[in-house]
Specification:
mainly beta; Jelly Rolls; 50% strand
């Protein structure tokens, strides 16, 4: 395990975690262990997340805003407190609402593909 992929320490703050710019308008602050990862994902207003797949199982919920999610061809408009489950390798896409959205995503195993991205500087997380 390299220093870039080592698990996060036992305590931290999302405001201190350097964000990954996943796509234009999408920042993720990830906390990872050996077998799972959690990310606070902030999406700018009307940001589209193109359809994609990954080998990680993904579960999550909307914390703030509206996020229209399409999972395996089924689309739902999700509001704060609503959840989603994406099995490994299932196509999914989405779009943030006019106020943007903040979601919490949990991945198993952690997203190793994010480790190759340049990370931004820590800043206050956009959560309620």
């Amino acid at each position: 395990m390299t220093s870039r992929t080592r698990p996060t320490g036992p305590f931290d703050r999302f405001d201190d975690v350097r964000p990954y710019p996943i796509w234009p308008g999408v920042l993720a602050r990830a906390v990872r262990g050996e077998r799972m990862g959690l990310a606070l994902v902030e999406l700018d207003s009307n940001t589209e997340v193109a359809e994609h797949t990954h080998p990680n199982e993904q579960v999550g919920f909307v914390l703030h805003g509206i996020f229209s999610f399409t999972i395996a061809g089924e689309t739902r408009e999700l509001h704060p407190g609503e959840t989603y489950v994406i099995p490994a390798s299932v196509p999914h896409s989405g779009r943030a609402g006019p106020e943007g959205a903040v979601v919490i995503d949990v991945f198993s195993p952690p997203r190793d593909d994010w480790e190759g991205l340049e990370r931004g500087e820590p800043a206050k997380a956009a959560w309620p």
